[in-house]
Amino acid sequence: MSGPRFAxxxxxxxxxxxxxxxxxxxxxxxxxxxxxxxxxLRSPGLxxxxxxxxxxxxxxxxxxxxxxxxxxCVVARHWTAQYPWSAHYGMAAEEGISTAVLDQIxxxxxxxxxxxxxxxxxxxxxxxxxxxxxxxxxxxxVHDQFGDAGTxxxxxxxxxxxxVCMNKNVDMVPPKPGKAPRLLPLN
Length: 187
Hints:
Mean pLDDT: 92
Structural class: mainly alpha
Low-confidence stretches: none
Largest sheet: none
Distance between the termini: 19 Å
Radius of gyration: 17 Å
Number of helices: 8
């Protein structure tokens, strides 16, 4: 991987429409424009709603942060997306997800020490990623715990990070330096 295909934008080189998106998104919880936005800003009409979606699924809703980070790592592993994996590996560990669990996910294994809550969202995310269907045995525990809103938010989290991972892979964004193991292709 040689590096991003889309040169980083600077505020000074952006169009007025791109600058307006940056101004609005930078008022959110992250207060910065992350490199997903660098790609999305190529289409400002797409960038603003995607930025709002990303902000909500990451910082809002009813799913606890630790479970969100676990799901993001599951999605990154599915897509072999180095940047999201490297960025969220440490965040997941900081939120209490065991590095042993994360390391098993990295090599494509079903983790053997997930808590009941972790197992619910792990199974749900994997079912969505495997074929888009979630059978009743996987759906019911998630719905019982998180209700209608949380279940839909979990679908949104998987969908949003699928888009993030696809964008990172198309843009060839290298992993962040750190302790996350590099993801190898699974097949």
